[in-house]
Amino acid sequence: MIKNVAISDFLDLGGTVTLADVRTPAEFEHGHIPGAFNLPLFSNQERVLVGTTYKHVGREQAILLGFDLTGSKWSGFIREAIEKAPDKKIAVHCWRGGMRSGAMAWALDLYGFEVYLIEGGYKSYRRWAHQQFEANHRLCLLGGMTGSAKTKILHELRKLGEQVIDLEDLAQHNGSSYGTMNKMIQPTQEQFENNLAEQLKDLDRAVPVWVEDESLNIGKVSVPRPFWHQMANAVQINLEVGLEQRIEELVKVYGSLDKDFLVTCTERIHKRLGPVQTKQAVAAIRQNRMADFIRLVLVYYDKTYLKSLSKKEDAKLFSFLIDTDQHAENALSILDFRKTIPSIA
Predict the structure, then answer these.
(1) Which region holds residue 120: left if phi is over 0, alpha if psi is between -120 and 50, else beta?
(2) Where are the domains of the chain?
(3) Choosing from 78, 90, 94, 322, which is the catalytic residue?
(4) pLDDT tens digit string along 52-91?
(5) Is 265 a catalytic residue?
(6) Chain CA centroid to CA 52, Å
(7) Topology at the third CATH level for domain 2-130
(8) pLDDT tens-digit map of 268-300
(9) Please, what sign has the CA dihedral across residues 249, 250, 251, 254?
(10) What class does CATH assign to 136-338?
């Protein structure tokens, strides 16, 4: 049995039905619905052939070519679907809910699956995702200069039951020249947005949501502008942490990274650091004087952060002093402090 279902209704099922994306591997890699698996009707090359035939010869010839290309694949499609959805309940989609998903739904239904066919396909999901960014949320920004341990405190807040969106985790980037940590691989812009929308949909919009103060760009991806504008207008608790404590925190985070990686990242910002500071920072890295290296680059990052902070409305900016590296205790103290701010209490 095939049931046509809107994307919002499918998402309301809460992951109880396996989702098959029948687009090509290239389309899937560029961006997909979180939790979906790829069951491509056509390879990347085959889709080009079918599309070219459709455009230059006609619809009927393209359909015939499609059957020629997939003829020997159907048993494989069904076996993989059984492996991924042993309960024989499955949802399918292509780009616009057209022939590719229709054909796969027909075959799976014929075999005995209960099939949910996503109306409008992946295109409808992308519209839904953008609606999540435009919805109003009660954001509370956690700010502070580099090394203030904002991300660690966010994780402690989450453990305490608070709603938290960790944009750096979603972006797989720590938001600086060194942000990939020499190991993280960023998602595509589209996948970053999809992953963010997936988290936003489960939030209680009547309850505050903690988000780290970020620039519009986090590495190579950008925060969706509607959501970023909400961040820019949100109340911000700015952590005030002493320089030496921040240096100690950053040495823990970056001190063990590959020196060639650190040098390359430092040289990438040489115009902003200046030639003398860059040379000194590189020398400190090579000589394993990590605290000296951190101290040098913080001059640039602190200056940049203060410039950004100056653009925040005074009425929405609240400072909170941190003088310990006990992140769990700091999270509890910040929660108590938030209760004193009527707009987000």
Answers:
(1) left
(2) 2-130, 136-338
(3) 94
(4) 999 899 999 999 998 899 999 999 999 999 999 999 999 9
(5) no
(6) 34
(7) Oxidized Rhodanese; domain 1 (3.40.250)
(8) 999 999 999 999 999 999 999 999 999 999 999
(9) positive
(10) alpha beta
